[in-house]
Structure prediction request, 320 residues.
Amino acid sequence: MTFASKTDFNHYTIAFYNLENLFDTVNDPKTLDDDFTEFSDKKWNKNRFRKKIKKLGRVISQIGYNSILHPPVLTGVAEVENKSVLDELIASKFLITKGYQYVHFDSPDERGIDTALLFRKDYFTVLHKEAFPLYIDNQNGERDYTRDILYVKGQLENETVHILVNHWPSRRTGGIETSYKRIAASNKNREIISGITSKEHNAKIIVMGDFNDDPASESVKNLTQADMYNPMELLHTKYSGSLNYKGNWNLFDQILISNNFLQQYGNLFRFEEAKIFNPKNLQEYKGRYKGNPFRTFIGKKYLGGLSDHFPVYGIFSIKK
Prediction:
């Protein structure tokens, strides 16, 4: 895309990436991480971990680069085990010179996987950070311990932005059967958004994450009410998405924006476009899964890939 007024604006990429089981190799007795230890069936070890870290760092550095010649200023991530894996990620070969830091809280998720927000400290300043727990019950009436919603308020140049990073409950026991959990997550996001706008009427808000639902799902549609817009809707087709399950494309990974990002006249902080980042080196290159995200494992079989999700991103501009 060619930006008509590129010289008048600074452009930034804001991305989201599900890193698919970014676990260290140490067994945590408090979580269900046993599959990702050296003596498990997956034989997860330091060599495999470091290869994955290096590859993920390279991908993050490339998201949106062809459009603006800079790596993302903000990247929401999901499925990270703890601070130690994030420390390794931002210190990896392709990110160490980019000045990344992160916001992270340990969540109550049973597997021990969390969300986080990577940010480039030379461009973005964190003003407030908070984890909002999601209280939902499973079908037996017991609490389902899942990921918190990560909220970060910060300043990009002189513009304030509010970021919500999500990883909604999975479809493991069935999409319809678990839909109520994702609707609850959606409602919690709406509650947080209302809290933000009650204090800052014209707040610029970005809601990103792995929603485990598509743009047309009830839970996501619940977010796109009068004040929010989903630029990802047009990206989900029969032939395109961020992950593929049994030959069908889904777009669970999405970035939604408040409508005020779309205002053209008098708007110093604008949304430009959204994309799925799916270059050939992130895809399976042959066989029955050709074109799908190149993942680390299929079952217990080690493939040496990165993630079963493609990253998604948006390009934003701020007037100089």
